[in-house]
Fold these 4 entries.
Entry 1:
Amino acid sequence: MTHFISALPKVELHLHIEGTLEPELVFALAKRNGITLNYLDESALRAAYQFHDLQSFLDVYYAGMQVLLTEQDFFDLTWAYLVRSHADNVRHVEIFFDPQAHLARGVPMTFVVEGIVRALEQARQQWGLTSRLIMSFLRHLTEESAMETLRLAEPFRSHLSGIGLDSAEKGNPPTKFARVYAQARAQGYRLVAHAGEEGPASYIRDALDILQVERIDHGVAAITDAPLMARLAQARIPLTVCPLSNLKLKVIDQMSELPVRQLLAAGVCVTINSDDPAYFGGYMNANYQALQDGLTLSDAELLQLALNSVEACWLSPPEKARLTQAVYAHGDAYGVVLAP
Ligand code: HPA
Ligand code: ZN
């Protein structure tokens, strides 16, 4: 790990809290909740983390979260993630949770939201680590299920900054959720959606034009569509790219194929994130490092990625200005000069 990366002040914008569930915590929570697992121990479970596409990951991801039952479980899960993020010099996080995956198991929304929020509040008080929470809909489920979830979230509205869309992308286009997003927009939610991970560039266009999202999660398929690239760059629409995720789920065959340098050169607001770090082999520093190793990015390019994340986040303008200053100060300490 280079010191430039570990000491770089970072912002994480694409993180599924259920994707931070490490095998050790799976076993601890299974024991606490009296659940019998199909795996003998932590290393046997970790050995099952071999994926060939998004769906093969999702099957393991939804199975793993069965151990999450109580408010304390959601607190412990979130706290463990925040401890790791703080160690990675992450200053601000915007995290997804998948309420439908818990409601379907009889776990009420209060346990989920209150457990997560209690940990987020503790991190803010203890370290000044700030956060936003994004409720994500499962796109393999129906529009009605998403609508019902939006309704169930009303008592928790003050804790939720935005809504997102995740799970199996192919065959579940953004258009399926046009009315859900229109409702959420009317309720003042900020809007993001996963698009162009396994799905085509047209899903990115539809997320922008039909769902009216302000940020695209993943979005790497944009590289195949020159007019879309120009539009993303011109409007500075952020892409939350996840290097180790794309590698593990075989969106790319090797890291050198990830189009981050091209996106930067085109002026797109590309950002680096960890997605589901317990499953994909690393948190924020590991993602920056894997990218640096695969693409031999310059320190100036890494600095630009960190600045993009601050630009793309939902902090207030003064908070953003303070973080931007911290990133520039880090660059100055290394004599890094940004491209004009
Ligand atoms: N893509 C789609 N669904 C997900 C992901 C992802 O990267 N992570 C958790 N659910
Ligand atoms: Zn994701």
Entry 2:
Amino acid sequence: MKPIVMTGAAGGVAGMIRPLLRTHYSELVLTDRVEPKDLAPGERFQQVELADLPALEKLLAGARGVIHLGGFSVEGPWETIHESNIVGCYNLFEAARRQGVPRVIFASSNHAVGYYRRARPIGTDERVRPDSRYGVSKAFGEALGSLYADKYGLRVLSIRIGNVAERPLDVRRLSIWLHPEDLVQLIRIGLEHPDVRNEVVYGMSDCAAAWWDNRTAERLGYAPRHQAEAHRAHAEAEQAKLPPDPVGDLLQGGSFPSADYVAGWVGEGKD
Ligand code: 15L
């Protein structure tokens, strides 16, 4: 069986899903800037910079799929976002194409659509509405996925991840929470489902308070096993410790759209 490659393997999300993935895939090739401390049997590490296309090509040679969690995972200065998430993401897709890797799972983010109001439910066919430079980079990654699927026949699943955690961290996360086991279910769909060409899905568990229509994922067989409402009391208690955010509390992206907010259109109309 050919290996699966995972970028961003030393990060928090990777740490939660690697043990689960190992039960399905016998060989995981991990990469990041630093080596994870807890390598397990079946996992092999190779340090590669996303900026280094030839090194990425070597890493991906012979892989059956790549899970791209790497890059910068929150808002940051443009230089950082550009290097890690724009150039790095381009290199990842290009290396996959050159090496004939058939499947790419792209960890997109809810921040690609974070300026939609919470009162406005959205599917995956809506225009992107990024709430940060980080969100723009995720929209860029989805666009690359679309190009590489349409032009070169890669099979790409972009997962607009909400928040991956053992339980929802606050009231906003009750609407976007993703349990690690449900993320692994989505990743497996991306790596294995015959109908995946270029799909965008929401990375959320069973959230009764969701703002997203996740029919595309459901059509591919996604059936989340974890319910956010089971953790409502915890999320509300944590929310009570947070200061109000008059702009962010209206918007799907929370503190990302409200950071540096000066005079946008949030107070105007209902969209
Ligand atoms: C993300 O995309 C981030 O990677 C994560 O750190 C959280 O901020 C998450 O979104 C969120 O919106 O909760």
Entry 3:
Amino acid sequence: MASRKVVALPVDTIAEYAARHPKAPHLHFSYGTAGFRTLGVVLDSVLFRVGILAALRSKRLDGKTIGVMITASHNPEEDNGVKLVDPRGEMLEAAWENHATTLANASNEEFLDVLRQFVQTARIDLSKPSRVVYGRDTRPTGEGLVQALRDGLAAIGAEGRDAGITTTPIVHYLVKAINTKGTKQEYGEDSEEGYFEKMSEAFRKLVSGRARIPQLIVDCANGVGAPIVKKMTEYLGETLPIVLVNTAIDTPGALNHNCGADFVKTRQTLPPSLHGMMKPGQRACSFDGDADRLMYYFIDERGYFAMLDGDKIAALVAAFIVDLARLAGLADKVKVGVVQTAYANGASTKYLSERLPVRCVPTGVKHLHHAAEQFDIGVYFEANGHGTVLFSPSTIERLETHEPSTPAQSTALKHLNNLVQLINQTVGDALSDMLLVEVVLAHKAYSAIEWNSLYSDLPNRLVKVYVPNRNVFKTEDAERRLVSPAGLQPKIEELARRYDGGRSFVRPSGTEDVVRVYSEAVLRSQADELAFRVAGLVYDEAGGDLNRRPKEFL
Ligand code: G16
């Protein structure tokens, strides 16, 4: 029997590198909904340690490539963050989130011991290779953080591949493409060009023979979406006429400022830079800072703003896929389902539940993704515009091998197979989702107005309250009920009962030092009033501040 070569941790090299990336003793980091996320200037030690952790994860998985994305998504420009991507392009396995938190918080003196112990308890074979692909968004702190990550990789001798300034979904795509290369499940060429080609080719096929698509305005949030969508337009040519706005990636302070998907969702209004640009009924959409969220909207004939958020995207897409499955003769063989969070508009849940199975899970793409995997085709979207569609491996195989019995079945089947190529199934992807929406609109011959009229949103409001410690807020029942601080939930319910159709939920954000308050009511004024009154309760309870951002790290 061949004996296994025992390789030890290169402790001296690690110690030498670690000395360049000390952790400030007063800081505590936690790997949350979307990885580590806080002010960019305090993340140096975290990135160094994440480099080591990513390499160890790769070794643990037999040298499979792990992804690292440096971004703070929709957060303000001074924030930054980092998340890890597992080999199939998915979010990091939950158990390793705790390891990430432990490693990030070890004091400088303890770090090597904590690392040694982790390698032992996680039974990591250090003789295995380690491969990591990493990218970053356009934030000013990104470059320095990439250097810290590279030092982490160098300290442990991992092989790093720099994907440069790119979107979060492209990093997820690359991870899956690299790990499936040469296998039966090959996902695509493992390059940015491969991503553009795969998607644009599917898009062209799907819209071929349809009426010319009218111009679409794309708000890039002054982030990485700008260069990426610009490149994609070269692949799309005439098939999708796009006007790019908010592309100032080099202007300090511009990222996500008065623009982007989060601005549109929370303010329920146009980014100011689009005022005067849009004709009534014209479609526009906003990405967020790392291009994984998408919001559509338009101005109606009376000049009112209408928002087509993640819930409306789910309704549009799910109905389209159900139709195609039926037309392909697969209605009884392919189970389509939808996954939402409690923060989905009640009207969307009603609309969808009347048509197909709907599951509700806590916020965070990892929860939605896993729940969507339970269906043959799982459509998941958060109201904030984060989502995608998953085709199970057996469904993909069925679609590839199914013998259609009529030309109509054959056409529908072809469309489904092209959707498998068009949709980035690793994670929510604003660009891929935007093309998907455009395909459905083209097939249905829907304008934004017709799409919007699938159902009427219940008036709702999302408010954030800055609090000294969001961790005192704990929820249950898919974030529909607060269990801590004790006594707050009954007060919220009591308030909600006073409004016709009133519903309100409170949860700690996973990405910012805030508590999010959602409310819904039959009348707009009541939804607003309920949200602000519940925010007031939170404020009183936690000593929050409705406007101020805590600066405790500065
Ligand atoms: C991340 C997750 C999303 C989630 C969002 C929630 O998004 O990937 O699934 O919806 O956080 O953020 P919060 O808890 O602050 O509302 P992103 O786009 O910020 O990476």
Entry 4:
Amino acid sequence: MSLTDDLYREIILEHFKNPRNHGRLTAADITAQGANPFCGDELELTLALQGDTVKEVRAECKGCSISQASTSMMTEVIQGKTLSTAEELAKKFKKMMLENGPMDLPPDMEDLESLEGVKKYPVRIKCAILAWNTLLEGIEAYRRGQGKASHVEGEEGAHPDLTQQLTHESVPGTKGTGNSAVGVPSVPGTQDTQEEVRAALKTVIDPELNLNVVDLGLIYGIEVQEGSVKVNHTLTSPGCPLGPVIKGQIQGALTRIPWVKEIQVNLTWIPPWDPHTMASEEVKSELGIW
Ligand code: ZN
């Protein structure tokens, strides 16, 4: 993990923990609701205008850290801007999230560069652009003479092959032949096998937090018997759309252990994941727990 990644994660978590302009304006000129069903993110934006300028903005966002941080950053950026400038900046940010190439944003938008790492994960891009799409819908509706608008991520139908893309990306080097590779070594002693499985699972990264599932405490149990491995795991939140992706990554990681012949991956919600008690000390300090 580079220094920049660390710094970026810090910026995201800081906005997540202290969302700017949180709340709801009772006398709003523009009200726009947004939802990202891929992740369960929901938000409501309220804007008060003075002429064509955003005088005040409030946002109420429920969802993952990416959507909340991006919403918080967005409210800071558009405050005091004209609607056309806000629109322009929203389009610029969206374009940079959806296209390859480095982020190049004006100085007052530099916090948003922290979301660059999200570009690796198509599902998370939707989390990052939700607030901006909702803003654009709101401005458009206002121009049509309506004060209310709503936006649902995915209605543009951008990534039909999302899951496949992600699964593919997340299991690099997985051979189609799986466990039938030749020269399978004998099953190592049980005290080593658990460790070997744990080490393999450490290569599985939760895309939202960008940390491995073992240190996050998402692995609840590992059972090894001869060549068969059973893993019980959970996810950081029940609304997490990345369940199948993470399961695929776990399977992929186990497949790469030469002696593993049979894999069983079970998802459980009991007990619910709690980073305060389940994550490693190192992860807790990285998450700012707090
Ligand atoms: Zn999200």
